[in-house]
């Protein structure tokens, strides 16, 4: 693979990383404004979007870790380094994707309540995708890790 392709992929993933920091900043400012109103139980049940923002911020940290390890994998592939750091990074990406899926699974009842209130059945499908996509990435990552660690 040509080096410009690695540089392009590194640029794309760095852009995703920076944009996630921007989204997290917006989410934190919205949560601070909500906290000024007071987070009482009736307020949180009336506005379940705050639960969704909090879960998004919980999933933010493992997502950042996974993106950083993707950048490490790309750098290692560009420099033709050994397989061991790449396999370790795939293991960490697998764990991060499992954590993101677990957060999305915990968010599923809130998404169901929001979909029921708004009469939006497509939101349930979106909630399933939030659970299954990171889980699928974790399975692919663990498969790649096992292929890299397999002795020939």
Derived structural class: mainly alpha
Task: Give the total of beta strands.
Answer: 0
User: What's the total helix number?
Assistant: 5
Shape: elongated
Quote the average pLDDT: 84
Largest sheet: none
Rg (C-alpha, Å): 19 Å
* Helix share bin: over 70%
Fold and architecture overview:
With 152 residues, the chain is an all-alpha fold. Helix content is 89%, strand content 0%. The protein has five helices and no strands. The protein has helices at 3-37, 41-46, 49-78, 83-118, 122-149. The two termini are 23 Å apart. The relative contact order is 0.11. The model has no long low-confidence stretch (mean pLDDT 84).
Give the arrangement of secondary structure elements.
Blueprint: H1 3-37, H2 41-46, H3 49-78, H4 83-118, H5 122-149
Helix pairs in contact: 1-3, 3-4, 4-5
Which features would summarize this protein structure in a list?
152 residues, mainly alpha, 5 helices
Summarize the structure.
The chain is mainly alpha-helical and 152 residues long. Helices cover 89% and strands 0% of the residues.
């Amino acid at each position: 693979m040509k080096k410009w392709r690695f540089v392009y992929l590194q640029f794309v993933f760095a852009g995703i990383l920076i944009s996630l920091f921007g989204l997290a900043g917006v989410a934190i400012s919205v949560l601070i404004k909500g906290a000024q109103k007071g987070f009482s139980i009736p307020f949180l049940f009336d506005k379940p979007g705050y639960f969704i923002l909090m879960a998004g911020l919980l999933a933010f940290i493992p997502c950042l870790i996974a993106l950083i390890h993707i950048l490490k994998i790309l750098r290692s592939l560009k420099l033709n380094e050994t397989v061991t750091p790449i396999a370790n990074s795939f293991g960490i990406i697998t764990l991060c994707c499992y954590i993101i899926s677990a957060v999305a699974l915990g968010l599923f009842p809130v998404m169901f309540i929001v979909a029921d209130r708004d009469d939006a059945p497509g939101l349930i499908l979106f909630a399933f995708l939030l659970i299954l996509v990171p889980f699928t990435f974790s399975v692919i990552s663990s498969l790649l890790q096992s292929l890299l660690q397999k002795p020939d």
